[in-house]
Structure formats: C-alpha cells, structure tokens
What we know:
One of its GO terms (molecular function) is nucleotidase activity. This is Pyrimidine 5-nucleotidase. By secondary structure, this protein is an alpha/beta fold. It has two domains: 7-27 and 95-244, Rossmann fold, CATH 3.40.50.1000; 31-92, DNA polymerase, domain 1 (Orthogonal Bundle), CATH 1.10.150.450. 36% of the residues lie in helices and 14% in strands. It contains ten helices and eight strands. The longest helix has 15 residues, at 31-45. It starts with 13 loop residues before the first strand and ends in a 15-residue tail after the last helix.
Amino acid sequence: xxxxxxxxxxxxxxxxxxxxxxxxxxxxxxxxxxxxxxxxxxxxxxxxxxxxxxxxxxxxxxxxxxxxxxxxxxxxxxxxxxxxxxxxxxxxxxxxxxxxxxxxxxxxxxxxxxxxxxxxxxxxxxxxxxxxxxxxxxxxxxxxxxxxxxxxxxxxxxxxxxxxxxxxxxxxxxxxxxxxxxxxxxxxxxxxxxxxxxxxxxxxxxxxxxxxxxxxxxxxxxxxxxxxxxxxxxxxxxxxxxxxxxxxxxxxxxx
Length: 255
C-alpha cells in the first residue's frame, strides 16, 4: 500500500507517529477517568437514562474507536460543543506537568533520519494543549488530529485516518513509518496497513477507562499482534527503534 503525494513534498526520512493521550504521559494521571466522567455527563445531557447512557458510551467507543463518532452519527450533536464540554473542561495543568525525560527522549531522536509527528483521536486544541504542558510542543513537527469541524471526520482505528495521516505527513512508503499507541486496536490497524514498526504502549497493572468502563491495563491476553512490539516505558524505544536515535561514540543509542 502506497499513498500518492506531491513529488515536491517527498521526504525520505522515517516518520515517527506518537499517540498523545495515555502514551506521552502515564495513565496514572487519571485523565482518562476524568474524561470518562465528562463524556458520561454529556450522554446524560441528551436526556438519556443512566443505564442507557452507560450502554451507548461503551457501544460507540467499541464500534467506532471514539464515543464521539457514535454521538455525531446517531444523535447529530455538535462535535465542537462536545470538545468544549469534555476535553476543553479538563484541568490538565493540575494533572500533568512538564516531563524532562520525555523531552530528552524526543531530543535524542536523530532528525537527519526521522521526523516526529503526533497522531491523536483528540481535537487540535486538546492535542496542542497537552504537548505544551508536557513541554515538548517545539519538538513535534506536526499533529494529525480528529477534525471535529468536519461532521464526517475519521478517527483511529479507521483505515482512512491512517491514510490521511500519511498524506499530511508526506510519506508514501508505509514501511518508513514508526508508530506507538496505548490502544491495541489502533496498533493493529496500523500494522494491517503495513506500517513499518508498530509498538503497543502498555503500562501493565495501571487502570484506565475505555468507553466509560474502568479496566486494568494489560496486553489483553490475546494473540500477539504480528510485527508489533509491546513496551511498558517510552525509554524502551531507544533500543526498539535504535536506528533513529542519536548514537554515542561507540555506536550505541544514547541513554
């Protein structure tokens, strides 16, 4: 699978796509829990009963990869209103802080070999806000986000979202893409499209919220994803993706 892009925009370097939420920061921040509460409240604001709201929240997340996709399709809500009341109301400055270790990790990627992008199911305002708070916004070349301004927006794990990401990042060869995400389904979708190195970020033992339901993070106990790697710390990328990190004088990746 290749994507046609303008020949004037072709860049032969690798592209690294980092998921943002629960990947660039730890699930221990409890942001997913706070988000789950706000999304549930949004379902209730539509006049749904408690049990029905819970049922649909989980159903839409499971079917579409994002509860908002179901809300737009079946309830004709304004996604920008949803973003304002859910993502936009999160007290992120109280939940995450600048991360010097993350910043150093991103600085140690050799930019002569790889470009660094973010790939998120959030809207651009939330994405840029998180990157700014973490203190790494200047190290991200571009952000692929869900365009809530378009009622027919796509999201992970829909194939179109990944194809659009390749187009926007001007990369035609999927084998030149490195990708890391905390969602097994999102990683599986990228692997199915032939993306070169897919990593499942899995903080085993911590708790997160998916589709409004709390769950303990694990590799799911399912069959391993073909060609995918599981890591529990971002620092492990230095060895997993050693070819795109700066090296020391002896040729080993910088620590």
